[in-house]
Write a structure and sequence with these properties.
- The protein is an all-alpha fold.
- The protein has two domains: 1-32; 40-292, MetI-like (MetI-like fold, Orthogonal Bundle).
- The protein contains twelve helices and no strands.
- The chain has helices at residues 2-39, 57-64, 66-97, 104-112, 119-141, 156-181, 185-193, 198-209, 211-226, 230-235, 247-257, 261-292.
- The longest helix is centred in the first third of the chain and has 38 residues, at 2-39.
- The protein is globular.
């Protein structure tokens, strides 16, 4: 009986600790999603009291809206390229900083520092870099290169990838670095005894042991890339034209700029569904590989 009362007391204490976070999570995320789902079936403009039920009209409108297709195309291109580049370079830097090179602590700090800056500030920094600083440096060095990447529809994606990877590679590098340092050295010693080369040790020992970190990084980078918004606000404004308008940027313009809150809610529901679907598929595939490895 005493043990049962003690367990109930501990459970109550844990519940009281979790309750504030649960309330914030519910009010700040779950409730808005539920309300937005309801608004997606109306023609509400976001300000007036009156709203009419339109059924699936907003969802049908998505398939007729050419801007939605362009926004999703940019978002998918950015997500695929960003996920690949960040994972590869984060792993390369982690492998380099896990070695015995000099000054690796300082290099870790330098690579990690950009992620402490907000994406809004990052956008301002790289807009200035591409428009003022890099052209001056190129001119001083005699380089005939066009650094105005954010000003052209054909190069704006490249410019945004550079800015985003500059900011976040150091963050994901630390996750890979922590995973590398947790790999038992006995496995490498056994592989050396068996005559495995450095490349063979990487593919047979290092990469399988990094499987949980790979899952975290791939899912985190993918979902973050699908939600890119603040970087665009301060760097390109969705331009030139609509060349860098992501799906979230379009949702903002439609719901708040265009006062089509019902239609914007329908667009946001499709984004939430996409995020859940991608995360579930990635987790399922990558977790299965963790078990196999």
């Amino acid at each position: 009986m005493k043990r049962s009362n003690l367990q109930r007391g501990v459970t109550l204490q844990y519940s009281m600790l979790v309750l504030p976070c649960l309330l914030v999570f519910t009010v700040g995320l779950i409730l808005p999603i539920i309300l937005s789902f309801g608004f997606s079936f109306t023609d509400w403009d976001g300000l007036s009291r009156g709203k009419s039920f339109v059924g699936l009209g907003n969802y049908r409108k998505i398939f007729r809206d050419a801007y939605v297709g362009d926004a999703w195309l940019f978002t998918i291109e950015f997500t695929v390229l960003n996920t690949a580049i960040q994972n590869v370079f984060a792993l390369i830097f982690a492998l380099a900083l896990d070695s015995s090179i000099k000054g690796k602590k300082a290099l870790r700090t330098v690579l990690f520092m950009p992620c402490l800056i907000s994406a809004i500030v990052t956008g301002f920094i790289w807009r200035r870099m591409f428009t003022n600083i890099l052209p001056l440096v190129g001119e001083a060095l005699g380089l005939k290169m066009d650094f105005l990447l954010l000003g052209k529809g054909s190069t704006v994606l490249s410019g945004l990838l550079i800015a985003n990877n500059w900011q976040w590679i150091g963050y994901w590098m630390l996750i890979y670095l922590a995973a590398l340092q947790s790999v038992p050295q006995e496995l490498y010693e056994a592989a050396k005894v068996d005559g495995a080369s450095g490349v063979r040790r990487f593919w047979s020992v290092t990469l399988p042991m990094l499987a949980p970190a790979i899952t975290i990084c791939v899912v985190g980078i993918t979902t973050g890339s699908l939600k890119v918004y603040d970087l665009l606000v301060s760097s390109t404004g969705g331009g030139p034209g609509r060349a860098s308008t992501s799906i979230i940027y379009l949702i903002y313009n439609v719901a708040l700029g265009g006062r089509q809150y019902g239609y914007g809610s329908a667009l946001s529901m499709t984004l939430i569904a996409c995020l859940l679907l991608v995360a579930v598929i990635q987790l399922g595939v990558l977790k299965k590989r963790e078990v196999q490895m």
